[in-house]
Automatic annotation (TrEMBL):
Domain of life where this protein originates: Bacteria
Cofactor(s) the record lists: FMN
Stored InterPro entries: NAD(P)H_nitroreductase (IPR052530), Nitroreductase (IPR029479), Nitroreductase-like (IPR000415), YdjA-like (IPR026021)
Name the UniProt record assigns to this protein: Nitroreductase
Length: 192
């Protein structure tokens, strides 16, 4: 069991946000994506609502998503703030990824508060992120502007919300030191 703890510690402590400019041109096989998503399904969830839902974009699906987000930027940016470079960056970021997942949440307002559903979805994403790290797949969670419009694009039901995009791609692994303040600064002990 000690080796298991060491392995879990290593994966947790080496997990990093790996951004699309760091991705290499190598497709993530569907089986790898399915294994990553399968571990999302084992996140903790109050009253077993299992609120996580994912829309997975690959291949031409990435082009559709890039076109949509590029058009959203163009339509919703005032002319004085619009930049062709930002438009291209919005599209290129998606097209550099091997896979982008829309992270969606099914609300069960009759059973649990929305924040509990969001916490469960975040746990599901962490499970995916740790699994991706263990499989040498780079990933990061982005929350672009216009999530409501993205929800419409995804044809989400009124009881569903999009809470971000999860980018994934193979990358050249390298050491990225963690930037964290000591845990002692974040603890309050009550023992007496």
């Amino acid at each position: 069991m000690e080796n298991t703890v060491e392995l879990i510690n290593q994966i947790i402590r080496t997990r990093r946000s790996i951004f699309p400019p760091e991705y290499i041109d190598k497709e993530i096989p569907r089986e790898v994506i399915e294994a990553i998503v399968e571990n999302a399904n084992f996140a903790p969830t109050h009253r077993l609502t299992q609120p996580w839902r994912f829309t997975i974009f690959r291949g031409n699906g990435l082009v559709k998503l890039a076109d949509f987000l590029g058009d959203q930027y163009r339509q919703n940016t005032p002319p004085a703030l619009y930049s062709d470079a930002k438009y291209e960056t919005t599209r290129t970021k998606i097209l550099r990824a091997s896979c982008v997942m829309a992270i969606n949440m099914q609300l069960h307002s009759d059973k649990v508060p929305e924040w509990e559903e969001l916490a469960a979805v975040a746990c599901a994403v962490q499970n995916m992120w740790l699994t991706a790290t263990a499989m040498n797949v780079g990933a990061y969670w982005s929350t672009p502007g216009g999530l409501e419009a993205l929800g419409e694009f995804l044809n989400l039901e009124p009881s569903q919300k999009c809470v971000g995009l999860f980018y994934m791609g193979y990358h050249q692994p390298g050491e990225k030191p963690a930037v964290r303040k000591p845990i002692e600064e974040k603890l309050t002990w009550v023992e007496d």
